[in-house]
Design a protein that fits this description.
- It is a single chain.
- The chain is of the alpha/beta class.
- Helices cover 31% and strands 25% of the residues.
- The chain has a four-stranded mixed beta sheet. Strands 2-15-17-16 form a four-stranded mixed beta sheet.
- A hairpin with a 2-residue loop joins strand 8 and strand 9.
- Helix 4 runs parallel beside helix 6, helix 5 runs parallel beside helix 6 and helix 8 runs parallel beside helix 10.
- The radius of gyration is 21 Å and the shape is elongated.
- The model has no long low-confidence stretch (mean pLDDT 96).
- The structure holds ligand EPZ.
Amino acid sequence: MDKLRIRGGVALDGEAHVSGAKNAALPIMCASLLTAEPLRLSNVPQLMDVRTMAKLLRQMGVEASSLAQGHMALHASRISEPTAGYDLVKTMRASVLVLGPLLARCGRARVSLPGGCAIGLRPVDQHVKGLQAMGATIAIEHGYMNASAERLRGARIVMDMVTVTGTENLLMAATLAEGTTLIENAAREPEVLDLARCLVAMGAQIEGAGSDVIRVEGVRSLGGAEHRVMPDRIETGTYLAAAAATRGRIRLHGAAPETLDATLEKLREAGAQIRVDGSTVQLESGGRPSAVSVRTAPYPGFATDMQAQFMALAAIAQGTAVISETIFENRFMHALELQRLGADIAIQGNSAVVRGVERLQGASVMATDLRASAGLVIAGLVADGETIVDRIYHLDRGYEALERKLCGLGARVSRVS
Ligand code: EPZ
């Protein structure tokens, strides 16, 4: 089990390049199932989840090859086995994104229920309900969704709540359904829009992606395409928060600043100077951050995937912040670990009251999920002395070349096995 050793107290200072977005790359990889033609991707981040998705697709008969410099070639000329087994699905919930494409392409799919994870139950009832509305028969047996459909037909679907992968699954299924599909109360996350852009390049007819009403005219088949994955807005926000927390300065290249307005706004409120110049975002700390309260919400609100990072920032801020998590029911586990570093945090339901302290003290902590571990790394960068973050395989799922990028910014970080 790899660990990260951090000797804190150094202000980040330097430049880094933003990687491609994990949460755009994963659905876009699944889109390869929708066509018998090759799909060529670039700016694909080298992450464990991407490797897991490639492995899952290969098990179905898809040729998936990672090329140099973030290029990936995917070719589902034929699908031999429309199944996603529990062994892979349990390690990566995003595997559920093969369900819609498999139903649309082959008319059948056997996909393991993803099961819960650290941050919550995370059901997939909206995915199932939407596909059933499009004519699929889905039986849940022995932990698997056994789905079939002659040919999916367009439907008007009103989502009960905003769900990112739920929207993406239905969007992909609708591209090959007969007739028109309307997805209302759709997720507006930029990753949904990036997926739609790739699908349109493949010949899909989609309007309204990125808004809460998406209209799809089904077509008989889709072709191949080339697509560059959008920059990762959560990675960008994570490094910016780390620079603000350590009172440093950072320039991030290859970013998409327009996709993280809520985060930039909160960082300015915390006292940081931020300049945007095309795809470069620059942050200059304004000294000790001021406490800022945040309340997570679907895009364009403040991202739940940035909540742990901002709790770490609040831990050493001037003043008291209230951090409210409205998306997941159990996404405060990093609070208990931050308390080990000396943070003053009181959890009340889905809110955490964080009273900023002057200093944190290094300690051994344990990562519980991807973004919680990012919050712990930020706290470790600030804390006096040495912090050991255990179970950093969580980090490897979503942050490409984390140590290299942090060391390039002056952090004293090393991986220990
Ligand atoms: C996506 O997860 C992201 N993952 C998550 O990022 C992100 O935290 C989340 O969206 C919210 O932004 C990917 O895109 C691969 P949801 P997703 O469906 O789609 C409930 C990371 O760190 N819900 O938008 O699984 C659900 O329980 C990950 O990269 C249902 O009740 O999240 C949650 O409370 C973590 N029924 C809320 O909706 C459903 O059928 C939002 O979940 C679907 C969701």
